[in-house]
Design brief:
It is a single chain. With 375 residues, this protein is an alpha+beta fold. The protein is built from twelve helices and 17 strands. Strands 9, 10, 11, 12, 13, 14, 15, 16 and 17 form a nine-stranded antiparallel beta sheet that branches. Strands 3-2-1-4 form a four-stranded parallel beta sheet, sandwiched between helices. Strands 5-8-6-7 form a four-stranded antiparallel beta sheet, with helices on both faces. Strand 1, helix 1 and strand 2 form a beta-alpha-beta unit. It is globular, with a radius of gyration of 20 Å. 45% of the residues are buried.
């Protein structure tokens, strides 16, 4: 693969906060960034060198974007596969449309991982309450059912306790559904892996994640896991990246059990849980993403602080007016990241705060104090 050195132009499909932080990292390294955006005021479009504003299904708009680029990448999975194929006609595009297709459909995703010998919870395609009841007879209640496509942050997901609840699902609201055995996990974790166009692979350390209302709330390093659990988590994540022949970044989300680990989901892009790498690690996940898709040597992923934590800032914080930014920033060690979104909505990710500290407990306490002071 041809290396793309500083001075080259990187295209970013998607213009949200992940694209924004990617663009900042890339431009700091001397690259130009062009964003394919929905709106000229989107978070990434605000900071990039240039943007092309069009619908992702507008082939002419995608052409105007892609022909400017030396290499192209993306910030989220819910992109039409044909959009990435169009990009591939003009420049190397990472991850590929094949990887995107796998990540877009939970049934394909879980089948691919299972066929590779990676640990996943029992699952099956379902399309009716009768099919869920049959699955439950084998695996027990409750059953988690999810839309096979387009779900995130708990959207399109149901926890069904019995046959009556299964009958209440609007099965016609999605083209396909997947049922999963309910997993009583101890905690959730994620591992972010970079694999470059030259085949080099580097793994960030395992991150511990805490969710609230199906949305990531707090992420922590070092994770409260045994050395063996960390080793196994990173082994699974690297195997996933290798099996998919991924180029770029992938996050593997895991359930931590008393007797092992299970893959919950994969995301072939930077991940919310990895935002703490900006302050915590020698190389952030966003710089590593740049390095991976450009085929230049991957950066050092080890932690440069004893511990770090990140807390999401959701639109709920704006319910009583503008948050008290000065109060938050008065909290020692807290760093503020805002995404430039114009409208605060309940549950919408508007920014995050990060803190480094001598221990994970201290780091979590600091970000939670900083966030609370915003109120």
């Amino acid at each position: 693969m041809t290396k793309q050195l500083p001075g080259a132009t990187i295209g970013m499909v998607g213009s949200g906060q992940l694209g924004r932080m990617f663009a900042v990292a890339a431009m700091t390294m001397g690259y130009r960034v062009v964003v394919l955006a929905n709106d000229e005021n989107d978070p990434a479009a605000q900071v990039a060198n240039d943007s092309v504003v069009c619908d992702l299904t507008d082939r002419e708009g995608v052409r105007r974007f892609a022909e400017q680029c030396d290499v192209i990448t993306l910030e989220f999975e819910n992109i039409p596969e044909e959009t990435i194929r169009w990009c591939e006609e003009f420049a190397p595009t990472h991850p590929s449309s094949i990887v995107l297709r796998t990540a877009q459909d939970r049934l394909i995703e879980k089948s691919t991982l299972s066929d590779a010998g990676l640990p996943v919870a029992p699952f099956a395609r379902v399309d009716s309450s009768e099919a869920v009841n049959e699955f439950a007879r084998e695996h027990g209640w409750p059953v988690i059912v999810k839309t096979a496509r387009s779900g995130y942050d708990g959207k399109g997901q149901h926890r069904l306790e019995n046959e009556e609840q299964a009958a209440s699902v609007d099965w016609k609201s999605a083209d396909s559904w997947v049922a999963e055995k309910f997993i009583a996990f101890e905690r959730e974790a994620s591992v972010i892996v970079a694999r470059s166009s030259c085949g080099e692979v580097r793994c960030f350390e395992t991150i511990e994640n805490r969710h609230r209302n199906h949305i990531l709330d707090v992420s922590i390093v070092p994770a409260n896991l045994s050395d063996e659990q960390r080793r196994r988590a990173e082994q699974i994540a690297i195997a996933t990246a290798e099996h998919l022949s991924l180029v770029g970044l992938i996050c593997v989300e895991l359930f931590v059990l008393e007797d092992g680990l299970l893959v919950n989901e994969i995301a072939p892009r930077p991940h919310n849980s990895g935002h703490l790498t900006i302050e915590a690690c020698h190389t952030s996940q966003f710089e590593q993403h740049v390095r991976a898709v450009c085929g230049i040597p991957l950066g050092e992923t080890s932690r440069q602080v004893p511990a770090a934590a990140m807390a999401n800032l959701l639109g709920d914080l704006w319910s009583n007016g503008e948050p008290a930014w000065d109060e938050c920033l008065a909290e020692p060690g807290v760093e503020l990241h805002l995404y430039g979104k114009s409208e605060a909505k309940v549950g919408r990710k508007m920014g995050h705060v990060t803190a480094t500290a001598p221990s994970p407990e201290d780091a979590v306490a600091a970000v939670e104090r900083g966030r609370e002071r915003l109120r």
